[in-house]
Fold:
Amino acid sequence: MAKVKVYVTFKDGVLDPQGKTVKNALDKMGYKNIEEVRIGKFIELETKNGAGPSLKKEIDEICDKLLANPNIEQYRFEIE
Amino acid sequence: MAKVKVYVTFKDGVLDPQGKTVKNALDKMGYKNIEEVRIGKFIELETKNGAGPSLKKEIDEICDKLLANPNIEQYRFEIE
Structure:
């Protein structure tokens, strides 16, 4: 069994309306120290098989095909 | 300026319907090696001031009040 942590974030330059909304909410709540908020996804996967040489390729495929939108999002992952 | 990375995940035992949906999609796509999927939020914050002694308290407050639902979610963060 292996655990994989995937981080999906918007590419630089892509507008993040959810992050902007949270930023505005924080302003109104008085947290003026926060200058920017970007919101992404944090995905934890558990695999049946251990971390073999093919796992990295498999996770790349899964990210490209399902977890991230390659037009506007980037991803990185850690295999544990 | 400091950067803060916040990870918000469901507490253990809380059902994650979005994760379940992704798990089912992966099954149908043939990725039988993936046994469990849990989906959370990954939030990046940038602050005006540097990482002082009060920043940890401020981020805890922001997580409790806005970023995480303390009833069903847990969070952790890293200050860089």
Remarks:
- The longest strand of chain A covers residues 34-47.
